[in-house]
Amino acid sequence: MEETTANLKNVIGSTAPRLIFTTHARERMRDRGLEPDLLEKALASPGKIIDQSVERGQIIVTYRIDSKEVLVVVLKKVSDDTFKVLTAFCNDDARMICKINIDRARNLIKYDPGAAIILGVSAFEAFCSDHFSALGDFEKYLVDSRRISFQQLDAAKEIFRIRMGVNLSGDAESWEMLHNVFKARHALVHCGGALKDGTLVHIDEKVAERGLEAIETILHPFLEGYPPST
Questions:
Q1: In terms of Cα–Cα distance, which of 107, 119, 4, 13 is closest to 56?
Q2: Tens digit of pLDDT for each residue in 6-56?
Q3: Of 80, 78, 81, 39, residue with least CA distance to 61
Q4: How many Å apart are CA 79 and CA 49, to the nearest integer?
Q5: What's the CA gap between 133 and 109, in Å, rounded?
Q6: Is the pLDDT of residue 1 over 50?
Q7: Domains and CATH numbers, the chain
């Protein structure tokens, strides 16, 4: 393993923590055309810092390279002043944030299944909006001006079919489940938990897990391969 020092003050509050680059990480960075100075620049001025796994001591640091690419660095805390670089790769914000928020929603299930559903649905909507906006200036205008809303699932299905040739409802069971969790999310956020017929929404851990699995199944064509092999 190779070592270097970078300013991670914004990340962990230390002025000179030690960074350990494994040989594997160096090879992956080289294969992906990522220079160490870009990595250290990202760690010195991170855009976002996300605890990926408290139990494993892993941290994700992101750094925007340009309007389309984001550098993602995965670190593992070795001690208070030492971090190991596990891998680094470039990805688009939409996929990264969606995957992380689905993971966060899954971690919420045992504490608050309803909150997990709300976060999962928000992750789906945000991904659809961001992914569609990235197609071009016109698409971005439609989203920014709210001419298109991905809260309407059937409309979202047609938009993805026409513009991207993707059938979001290909898995009928998952699509039906997504409709159900969208209704539940609307009731929880806007109607005090009551559906249109007046009955109260009841979401247990199993329902929340099935809802998140449905979201992952529907978005699989887009999220497949994230994150890249470490």
A1: 107
A2: 444 444 555 456 778 888 788 877 877 777 777 777 767 666 665 544 445
A3: 39
A4: 18
A5: 30
A6: no
A7: 2-91 (3.10.450.530), 95-223 (no CATH)
Q: How many CB atoms lie within 10 A of CB 2?
A: 12
Tokens of 199: 């009955």
Amino acid at 132: F
From 148, 127, 136, 129, select the one nearest 218 (Cα to Cα): 127
**Spatial contact of 70 and 64, defined as CB atoms under 8 Å apart:** yes
Q: Determine if the peptide bond prior to 46 is cis (ω within 30°).
A: no
Phi first, then psi: what are they for 84, rounded to 5°?
-100, 130
| Rounded Cα gap, residues 90 and 83, in angstroms | 20
Place of tokens 């698409």: 139
125-169: pLDDT as tens digits: 888 888 888 788 888 888 888 888 888 888 889 988 988 888 888
Q: What is the 3-state secondary structure (H, E, C) of 95-115?
A: HHHHHHHHHHHHHHCCCCHHH
| Neighbouring C-beta atoms of residue 145, cutoff 10 Å | 8
Q: pTM higher than 0.70, yes or no?
A: no
Question: Phi then psi for 80, rounded to 5 degrees?
Answer: -60, -30
**Which amino acid, one-letter code, is at 217?**
T
Judge contact between 89 and 79, C-beta under 8 A. no
